[in-house]
Amino acid sequence: MLKIHVPDDAPAVLRPSAAWPVLAARSEVEYHDTLPGSEDGLIERIAAAKLVLNVRSSSKFTERVFAACPSLRLVSVWGTGTDHIDLPAAARHGVTITNTPGVSAVSIAEHTLALLFAVARQIPRIDAETRTGAWPRGRSVELAGKTCGILGLGAIGRRFAKLAAGIGMRVIAWTMHPREIPGVEMVELDELYRKSDVLSVHLRLSEQTEGMIGAREFGLMKKSAILVNTARGAIVDEASLLRALSDGAIAGAGLDVFTVEPLPAGHPLTRLPNVVITPHCAGITPEALEAGLRLSVENIWSFLDGRRENAVGRPA
Fold this sequence. Notes:
Layout: E1 3-6, H1 19-26, E2 28-31, H2 39-46, E3 51-54, H3 63-68, E4 74-77, H4 87-92, E5 96-98, H5 105-120, H6 123-131, E6 147-151, H7 155-166, E7 170-174, E8 184-186, H8 189-195, E9 198-201, H9 215-220, E10 226-229, H10 238-247, E11 252-255, E12 275-277, H11 286-304
Parallel strand pairs: 1-2, 3-4, 4-5, 6-7, 6-9, 7-8, 9-10, 10-11, 11-12
Helix pairs in contact: 5-7
């Protein structure tokens, strides 16, 4: 019988989902609801695998992992990010990598908007003070008429552009692959930093984007600007972000992603009053979760049928 390896469903999302019975009905599943913990642990779990369904980005598919798994032909990733996979190494070893683009775009865009409102209106601080009997006033910022800068116009960035325009913001953007989007003004990168009252990050993490927003970029931004990042933490240089928030170079930040995850207890970001943080959960609504898991399973069937739907990087 067809065999599929799931090395890292922890905490479990695949097993309780509607995608699981579909997967189990057509294949034998070698399933783990704990994390491999290391390259060696991952190799041990998938050494004989041909087909892998990867749930967690903490499982690093490196050159060494691919070399140690000569039978491997497909890694079907739940999610859009593939920064935990050495794509050139996968291609060299004849391994196809697929992902689930677009399924969480609505969820992440809505969460981005929620973070923006929470920072602009200082909702967490006002809520906490009101619960103690205080009655705070005059801390909110109105967003209508302000300029929303979007860094990256993939499925999520485009969806958020519509939401920002819907609340009356002027939308400008910069993206790796320029395109015309109705209602969105394309600008040069430095102009994006200078003009944005809100800067929302929607890029993939890559060699080109890691540390892309640092001290220089924060120096270009308005002191009243708000940064929102629901993409990947490492796109923003964390030390520079901390300085910008502490020194008033920008007004605040809404963050769902971090350089190190989970965010360590007592991390400096947790002590800043002008930051709203959530635990990398923007795309984990029940609707997005089920759609993504279903597509990750469908990508396996497509591969077995000879199609490379949702393949990432160079085709294997």
